[in-house]
Amino acid sequence: MRLLVTGASGLLGLNLCLVASKHGSEVVGLVHSHSLQGVPFSIRQVDLLNTQQALVQMRDLEPDAIIHCAAMADLNLAERNPDLAYRLNGDVPGILAGAAGEWGIPFVHISTDAVFDGSKGHYVETDTPNPLSVYAKSKLVGERAVLQANQDALVLRVVFFGWSLSGKRSLSEFFFSNLQAGQSIKGFSDTFFCPLYVEELAEIILEMLRLELKGIYHVVSRECISKYDFGVRIASKFGYNPELIQPVRMSELKRDAPRSLNLTLSPAKAQNAMGHALPSIDEGIDRFYQGWLDGYPHKINKFLME
Question: How far apart are CA 184 and CA 175, in angstroms?
């Protein structure tokens, strides 16, 4: 299978390309401003905002499936640049999904748990979204554009952690880096989520693609946790001092972009479709730790172009 992955330099995109390559897929990773070197898959530089040229480039690659990971994921950047956020997160996914439909190939769109307002938690796929930030609102527009353009598309609401090119893209890396340096940091005790380790998420995406699933699915850990407790678990796993993490309440802080507090999602629909449970948070942290022991962060850091 020739797999086309957008956002191949991002946290999910890179790990997905690596996992898919390891599982025998021919992978072409699309990047924009951050190119890669020495990766075990093909790289193409594409500007997704120049949609017509991007579609020509993508069609010429003759993919068997497209997984769309690219997005403006920085909440504060999206808040400052709403027009760009809505173009990249809202318009582009629908255009790509429509093209995949015309080409007769599967399309997977990566969305976010943040499409909900966090007022109740344990959200299922049929709950009504109510995004708070520009980022979350633009991602919901993208979901709807994808499904309107391509009724066979697969839309995944996710939240994940892992090792990235820069070492600064995930909450797990934030905790790890500061704990390793002996720095005192804060963790939100009133903010809840269900994060999956990124390589586990990549494996699940490939499994769902094989199963030819379509529609909206919540692909998150079967377990939920506060961000403070997540940090404490990482500290414990790596043998660092958990007392370096100070519990604070996000609800009491002023933020540039509004945040949802309870983004716990139910993965029951995905688990039923695949016939097995999704991983626990501790299973993910174990793999995050094993990656560090195996030198994985150093390995992928070398992929970054100077």
Answer: 10
**CATH code for the domain in which residue 39 is found:** 3.40.50.720
**CA angle, 206 as apex, 18 and 78 as ends, to 5°?**
75
Our count of domains for the chain comes to 1
Residues 160-199: tens digit of each pLDDT: 999 999 888 899 999 999 999 999 999 999 999 999 999 9
Is the CB of residue 188 less than 8 Å from the CB of residue 217?
A: no
Q: Is residue 125 part of a domain?
A: yes
Q: Computed over its alpha carbons, how large is the radius of gyration of the chain?
A: 18
Torsions phi, psi of 180, nearest 5?
A: -60, -35
Tens digit of each residue's pLDDT (9 = 90 or more) over 1-51: 999 999 999 999 999 999 999 999 999 999 998 789 999 999 999 999 999
